[in-house]
Amino acid sequence: MRILVVEDEASLNKTLSNTLNEFGYQSDTSENFKDAEYFIGIRHYDLVLSNWTIGNNDASDLINAIKQKSPRTTIVTICAKADKENEIKALKAGADDYIKKPLDFEILMARIEARLRFGGTNVIKIDDLVIDPDEEKITYQGKDIELKGKPFEVLTHLARHSDQIVSKEQLLDAIWEEPELVTPNVIEVAINQIRQKMDKPLNISTIETVRRRGYRFCFPKKTN
Length: 224
Prior knowledge:
Elements: E1 2-6, H1 10-22, E2 26-30, H2 33-42, E3 47-51, E4 53-54, E5 57-58, H3 60-69, E6 74-79, H4 84-93, E7 97-100, H5 105-117, E8 124-126, E9 129-132, E10 137-140, E11 143-145, H6 149-160, H7 168-175, H8 185-202, E12 207-210, E13 214-217
Parallel strand pairs: 1-2, 1-3, 3-6, 6-7
Antiparallel strand pairs: 4-5, 8-9, 9-10, 10-11, 12-13
C-alpha cells in the first residue's frame, strides 16, 4: 500500500516516512500542499497522512482534491493545536481521522492500520476483468492472469486513469521510485509484456498507443 506524507517539519517528515517503510508501506513525502497536490495528480494513494496546517493554510483544499480524484483514499490529519475548532473543521472538510501532536508512533501506526483495514476497496472491476492492486492479482472471466511487477503496476495505473491519455513520463513518475535513473524504454517493455502475457492469449485489448502522446486504457475493446 502507498501512503503520502505531507509535513513541513523536515525531521518529522523523514521519521514518518521511515516508520511507514519499516511497517511495509511505500511512502512519498511532501513538505507543502502544492507538491502534495502534484503527487495526488499522478499517483494513487491508499492513505494520505497530512499536517492540518502548513504555514498560514489548512489542508481543506488538499482534502478536496484527494476526494475528487480518489474518494476511497483515507485521509488522516495531524496537528499541534489541540483545539476542538480545528478538529471539527478537519473532519467536516473530509478527513477520516485527526491526531494531535506530539505523536505516539505506536498508536499512530495502529490507527493507520485500522483506517486502512476498514477503508474502501481498491479493486478495479470492468466487465469480466478484475484487477486487485493489494493482492497484485488479475482475473479475467474467473481465471487468474500471470502478470506481476512493473507491467502489473502500469496496467493498474492506466486502468485507474481510463479516461485519460497517460504519457511515458507520467507513468515513470507514478510507478518508478527513481524515474530519473531509468529510460522511457522500460514503459515500452512493460506494455509489450501486458500484450504478450494477457491481451494476445485472451484475445482482448487493454491498452492502446496514442501516437506521440502516450497510452490509454481501452478495455473492453476486443481485438480482431
